[in-house]
Amino acid sequence: MKYHRILLVVFASLMVNLCMAEEDWGKTGHRTTAKIAEKYLTKRATRKIRLLLDGNSIAEVSTYADDIKSDKEFRKFGPWHYVNFKFGERYSKETAYQGGDIIQGIQTCIDVLNAETSTQEDKAFYLKMLVHFIGDLHQPLHVGRGEDKGGNDVQVQWFKKGSNLHRVWDSEMINHYGMSYTELADNATHFSKKEFKEITKGSVIDWSYESQNMAKKVYASAQIGENLGYRYMYDNFELVQEQLEKGGARLAAVLNRIFK
């Protein structure tokens, strides 16, 4: 009987971790975004970030916010990975979830990093979180519909295996493409100064509206139960690449302003 209870606990733990793993860009996506950002960081920002992270790069810490999800101490940060507001409406702090969301989370990270009273420990923690959340913001279904958990409840097949729309956009297309995060970053578009300025203009809220508009297209791209495969990759992977690249450029812009 005791043995069965242990099995149930292990199984439950695995299921929790699997569910959590489906909530945002997979590890490759986050590391790609951060690696792209490194290309656009100023030397001063790079130096300060390395010092704050004890020599680690932002690519190395980009999955930290996911890694800590199973720790009860950090459960309060769960809602910071996404935001849900009705399509076509404007985001409002007054009606936003009081437990926080990705927009509030990003701003909190920025505030802590800019505050002279913040400890080095707090700054390091919120820097890791910021790197992750800006990546999340550029996965369109992180600004998706709350009623289907950002596409997690939209069941589809991926090469004839059970999946959901969120997971397809989080990791399955990226994994199927077969490149490491360094290869994806190395082959990413290199933005000119003019292009970088254009891409990084606007606010975090503006970027959330952009992601939400893309989320509408993502929802329209597949039917419930549809088998997605090579054609879906052909039609949609370019958008995945664009979002990884935009996320990287915008992350760099935010960090350059903080560590100026």
TrEMBL record:
Transmembrane segments: none
Top-rank taxon, per record: Bacteria
Signal sequence annotation: 1-21
Database matches in SUPFAM superfamilies: Phospholipase C/P1 nuclease
This protein's UniProt keywords: Disulfide bond, Endonuclease, Glycoprotein, Hydrolase, Metal-binding, Nuclease, Signal
One of the GO BP terms on file: DNA catabolic process
Pfam families named among the record's database cross-references: S1-P1_nuclease
Molecular function as annotated in GO: endonuclease activity; hydrolase activity, acting on ester bonds; metal ion binding; nucleic acid binding
Name of the featured protein: S1/P1 nuclease
